[in-house]
Amino acid sequence: MGESSSKTYWKSLPQRSDGVIPLPIAGDEFPEVPASRGMEFRRRDFLAAAGFALGGMAFTGCSRAPIQKAIPYLVAPEAIVPGHAVHYASTCRACPAGCGLLVKNRDGRAIKLEGNAEHPVSRGGLCAVGQASILGLYDSKRLQHPMQQGKRATWDVVDGEIMRQLDALRASGATVRVLTRPTSSPTMRRVIERFVGSFTDAKHVTYETLSSSAIHQAHERTHGQSVLPRYLFDKAEVIVGFDADFLGTWLSPVTFTAGWASGRRADATNGTFSYHAQFESRLSVTGGKADCRVPVAPSQLGAVLTQVASAVAKKSGVAFLAGDVGTNGIDASLVEDLAARLWHARGKSLVVCGSQDVNTQVVCNFINHTLGNYGATLDIAHPASQGDAGDDAIQTLLNELEAGTVDALIMDGVNPVYDLPNGAAFATAIGKVGLVVSLADRISETSSHATFICPDHHYLETWGDVSFGDGLIGFQQPVMRPLFDTRSALESLSQWTGVPKSDRALVQETWGERVSWNKAIHDGFAKVSQQAVPVGAFQVGVVTPVPVAEKVRDGQLALVLYPKVAMLDGRGAANPWLLEMPDPITKVVWDNYASLSEKTAASLGVETGDVVRVTRSEPDSKATTIELPALVQPGQHDRVVAIALGYGYGESARFADVGPEWLEKKPTLGDNGLVGTNASPLLTYRAGQLRLSGAHVSVTRTGRKHTLATTQDYHNIEIPEALALPGMIRRRPMVRETTIAAYQRDGKLPERGHAVHHEDLGDLWPDDHKYEGHHWGMAIDLTSCTGCSACVVSCQIENNVPVVGRDEVRRKRIMHWLRIDRYYSDNHGETDVLHQPVMCQHCDSAPCETVCPVLATVHGEEGLNQQAYNRCVGTRYCANNCPYKVRRFNWFEYAHDDKLANMSLNPDITVRGRGVMEKCSLCVQRIEEARIEAKKQGRAIADGDIKPACQQSCPAGAIVFGDMNDPESAVSKLIASGRHYRMLEETNVKPSVGYLGLVRNRDEIEDDTHHG
Amino acid sequence: MVSVGATIHDPLILGDKTPSVVTKDICSSLDRGPALSWWVAITISSTMLLLGLVAVGYQVATGIGTWGLNNTVGWAFDITNFVFWVGIGHAGTLISAVLFLFRQKWRTSVNRAAEAMTIFAVICAGIFPLIHMGRPWLAHWMAPYPNTRGPLWINFRSPLVWDFFAISTYFTISFVFWYVGMIPDMATLRDRLKAGWRRSVAGFLSLGWNGSFRTWLHYETVYLLLAGLATPLVPSVHTIVSWDFATSVIPGWHTTILPPYFVAGAIFSGMSMVLSLMLIARKTMHLEDYITVKHVGAMCKILIATGGMVAMAYLTEFVTALYSNSEYEQFAFMNRALGPLCWSYWIMVGCNILSPQILWFKAARSNMLVVFVVTIFINIGMWFERFVIIVTSLHRDYLPSNWTGYAPTWIEIATLVGSFGLFLTLFLMFCRFIPVIAIAEVKGVLSHGRK
Fold it and tell me: What CATH class does A550-710 carry?
């Protein structure tokens, strides 16, 4: 070191020479504070620094705030007027039914889905699943970009890699499988076919848990064509359902409900009132509406159908060997009566069967054939376009996967790991495939195993089509720009086929000149000519009687897995609106459960809320067990345990923090960390068919409890016997019933036995309300209301009603403005279900209005009971004094900050804060919208201009809103009908909402006045 | 030394005290430092108060959802507590004003404490309408005052507005009446205390009292006038409170019997609370000569009378329901007595109807322990009476689909405990700083000097 220091280095000549001051070095070029002063800071320096700092601050403070594109349009986009809603026609893809949609867009974003009233199939209705599917668009858990090996990737990279691998596979003639749900989209089918066709060994495999494969196969046997008929319920005068929940979940419930309801208009002068019998093992929405409902065990279903077939055959004179199917505990006269009714209405009757047993379906076809219903109420020449799911195909695929012979697997819209009984095996088997591509829009049980996830658009962001079989095509158009870096599945598959095309081009290419494109997109549907399917003559030879299936062993129960309204096979499992929609029958939210009949529950010593263990032990496989809470269900067959599918979905773990946080909060998720329990492991395969029901299970108590959250505690329309005075009418007159025979004879509902006619003492403030202009009112037809709850979800979306979580519902604090009351009543030992939608009744003498100390709830000039949220201080006096208990209080701050999900909020509606009361407004925003529109056009508001969200979505057309001051309005005419009544009329609160009594097609007159 | 009057009337104050003895007796507990029992009591009561404060703070910060209420039962503990505490207050006004007008001289021993109790009870009561609001920070909207929110005004048809006026009037009058009655005693304190801040305060509060004839004349006139003003409040306040329910459409609430029923109940509960507290004070502060068995006996008789009225009301409600021919009304009362919350009904009947019956016996009325136990029962029973009226009517009304249950949360229970904490803390403070017996008035009913 010392040596080196003796050496002199120099950079320049001046530096080398002594006595020359070196130039300042770079780091200290502008010394401001002379270093020698140390810590000392002179006054002048301070002033200089302060002046500089102040000047600097003043200078930067003078700059303008950054402008974030707040520039008005120079040329405004044609369609977007701020504050003005635009509706685009499209097609709902939330389930395979494909109902017509009108998508309400505000300021460039979709905010509400409505049924398209002009759509020939759905006729304006839209079910809860369809309504709620808009939340999927704004789902923050949706994949926002493609993924490769679980990591974010770009489309270029993903496409490059996939196509490189696929090209290699093409060249080598490798095995490629495409796994999707059965699709009714012709373009999708075409694109998949083209993709599959580009390989030498490729196959398109479809499967569906809610398979209707047996119907296809039965028609293949009887008519030589594997088709799913189109069912025309509106043309049927006698409808018999065998375990087919066609008003709730079966195939196309919206269409079927519309058709079913149109045949049951009690006030129509020339129409007939259809007769509906339902044989089912659990109590479904459809069974609840039936005129005659018979509980049968799943094992007896085919036998009962055979009994009916035999009786019908006898009437027609066709030979039919019924064999010995026994009576199955069913009154022979009932079968005889049913056969007589069917025969009487031959050609105008319809027998539908939801069984997944081909032989049973064949018998069903036989009945319809014998009655001459084919071509009348069932159309197989123009069948529904849903292809055969082919239940065995998925098992074949699984075998192939396990054998390791599949080289590439492309999956779209499926989640086999979740919904196959052997899902775990599927997950393992996927591991043996070299290239697994998922088009799923989220990370699910299955897509998490994929090499690549190429997320599809939400269906509202993409082009598409759906065929209804009879030449009607529904079109799907993007209603807003895709939110994320996703890509239509059509485009992805085309890309990988080597013919990259936009989804729009692909759909257009399918239809070409066959449709008028602009009109089709404008309308949302188009009609093309459709060739009839050549149907063979009915093969009587294939019809064999179905004996009673294997008897359930003692101590065991027959398992019935069923799709639940709104949840279906799990499509709604990530949607909080659907999870919080009360089940139409049980009124339970946020859970599935094992339903047991009262007798069975008692014999097992089980009560509602006891966690039970459901075990299926088949001789040839190891036992499968799931645990879930029990629910005692009236009207269910005694030898049955029924469990809803679609729960225990992996993604439902996201709902851990739903609901307000506080000391005594209880979690929304169950012990498994999910919402409900997945029942798919209990699905069975038998004779190549996926079976939802029929497996034998044992049910045992675990000793644990799990309180189910229900929106209703007391289920009967009659008050408890112990609390009734002797001779007192126990039945409360909320839902009034009659039979069609009595109604057509009397033209009115039966009087109640002890009806007390109160003297009209007038009003306390008679001059308060004059109703000189409009007087809004509503009439709800309880005959056509099925309880499907489409209106409940529609109202929730329209009015920004918050989701509160399981614990809050358990505490009876659900926020729904519109609820559907469900009562059970006893019909000679059988259980009747009564549904009654109840929202704010908008009383003319409203008890809530007089008691509010701060005038937060006041009466509008047009009869609306209005709630001013800003003024409300939250005394809850109004809610206490409401005889209908329709007011909803914000017990906590329920609204939460989810920027994406909040994009679905209706901008016309205030999001309510904590501590204020809220309730149904009869969609006052829609009234005002119609008023403005009418004023602009210089006309009066016409009847039908205003449809509140509930009315708009109702598939049955049960809800009618209008001006009661206009004698010609639809609502006035309904009010004038003999079925009209108002709830709690005797309290003189004068509700503006009224009900049309429930009419059933029964022979004897219902004793509405019977004593307890 | 037996007085002449003693042969005709039992003396109201025992021990033949002279006025100066009275002053000394009553003020002695103020002169002394607080006793250990007081410290124990204040520790317990302020802990209860603190618990209540925490509960209310949490509830206001988080939301009414922290209570066990639901869409069907919109009021439960909150309004039960409110009506309970308002009722408690009524005995004070009755004793101080009504008995004053009726020249019931025995009232002098208990009126000060009873009035203090009224004020503290009304303070406790007033908290509940405030905190039961969803947005209590907007409570001032209940008052009709000119504002900038356009033509927004309050709803004079709402019984809650009537309530607001009733309670605020009640508090104002009771407070003024109490204070005016205290002026001579404040002068007594001023004259007894050594110079210091306490004397300054007592001096200020005595408003320059000089004990002159003119002063007494004015004082007596004002006191009489105030008694006249306060008297109508005894029936009116609880009548108005009952209208919260009576004007509604809910079966079990919608009944015209509620006003007299509530007033009788209020006096019943208030009198039992006065007795409960006075029996403790009598024992701990050695005031047996001032609050005699005779006083206790008189109050017990009021309990029997008002308890009988309440029992009559319970019965009448059933008869009215039966006669009404309204299925909802009939069910409401069947459900009250036999429904899922019937335990609360039978607690109410047991405590309010059965327990006071023992007071028919003079031996029982003279046994302070028996009286104390009965008054505690009545306090419990009267709380449950309000719970029964509010909750059992709401939880099962018209539509069976709406029927729910109700169970309080810990927050609600802590709030109730806290209200007792507040009441007791205020009362203990009162015992420490203000003469618990009206010295000047008691002196007027002494036997001394009457012979």
Answer: mainly beta
Distance of CA B434 to the CA centre of its chain: 19
Residue B157 sits at the chain A interface (C-beta within 8 Å): yes
Distance from CA of B127 to the nearest CA of A (A): 13
Contact status of B124 with chain A (Cβ, < 8 Å): no
Structure tokens given for A370: 């014998």
Residue B2 CB neighbours (<10 A): 10
What strands, in cross-sheet order, belong to the sheet with A525-527?
A464-467, A472-476, A525-527
Whether residue A532 is predicted with pLDDT greater than 60 in this model: the reply is yes
- Chain A residues close to B74, C-beta within 8 Å: 876-877, 879-880, 889
User: Distances from the Cα of A973 to the Cαs of A680, A952, A966, in angstroms?
Assistant: 49, 19, 9
Chain A residues whose beta carbon lies within 8 Å of the beta carbon of residue B152: 854-855, 871
DSSP A930-976: HHHHHHHTTSPPPTTS---HHHHH-TT--EEEEETT-TTSHHHHHHH
Enumerate the CATH 2.40.40.20 domain ranges in chain A, comma separated: 550-710
> What are the pLDDT digits (tens) for A327-382?
777 888 889 999 999 999 888 999 999 888 888 899 999 999 999 999 889 988 88
Reported residue count of chain A is: 1012
Q: Do the chains contact at B70 and A813, CB–CB below 8 Å?
A: yes
Beta bridge partners of A610: A705
- Which CATH topology does A721-750+772-1000 take? Alpha-Beta Plaits (3.30.70)
For A855, the closest of B70, B152, B248 (CB atoms) is B152
For residue B250, list chain A residues with Cβ-Cβ distance below 8 A.
880-881, 883
Is residue A620 very low, low, confident or very high in pLDDT (cuts 50, 70, 90)?
A: low
| pLDDT beyond 70 at A14 | no
pLDDT recorded at residue A1008: 45
From the list A1002, A965, A991, A930, the residue with the least C-alpha distance to A780 is A991
Q: Looking at chain A, which residues constitute the CATH 3.30.70.20 domain(s)?
A: 721-750+772-1000
Q: Does the domain made of A229-384 have the CATH classification 2.40.50.140?
A: no
Task: Quote the CA–CA distance of A857 and A821 in Å, as a whole number.
Answer: 25
CB contacts < 8 A, A to B, total: 195
Environment class of A60 (CB within 10 Å of its CB; exposed 0-12, middle 13-18, buried 19+): exposed
Cβ distance A756 to B326 less than 8 Å, yes or no, reads yes
Name residues 42-81 of chain B within 8 A of A (Cβ). Answer: 58, 62-66, 68-72, 74-75
Taking the Cβ of residue B357 and every Cβ of chain A, the question of whether any pair is shorter than 8 Å is answered with: no
In A367-463 the beta strands, taken as DSSP E runs, fall at 378-384, 408-412, 435-438, 452-453
Chain B hits for A989, Cβ within 8 Å: 249
Annotated domain spans of chain B: 5-146+235-444
Decide if A736 contacts A837 (C-beta within 8 A): no
CA distance B182 to B175: 11
Cβ-nearest to B153 among A855, A883, A989? A855
- Cite the residue boundaries of each domain of chain A with CATH code 3.40.228.10: 229-384
Give, as one character, the DSSP assignment of residue A97: T
**Spatial distance between the Cα atoms of A131 and A578, rounded to a whole number of angstroms:** 9
B62/A662 Cβ within 8 A: yes
Task: Provide, as residue numbers in chain A, all residues whose Cβ is less than 8 Å from the Cβ of B244.
Answer: 877
- Strands A830-838 and A819-827 turn out to be antiparallel
**What tokens does A953 get?**
């979505």
List CB contacts of A753: < 8 A, sequence separation 6 or more.
A729, A1009, A1011
Q: Which residue has the tokens 């039962």?
A: B73
Q: Minimal Cα–Cα distance from B153 to chain A, Å?
A: 7
ipTM: 0.92
User: For residue B409, how many C-alpha atoms fall within 13 Å in the half-sphere facing its CB?
Assistant: 19
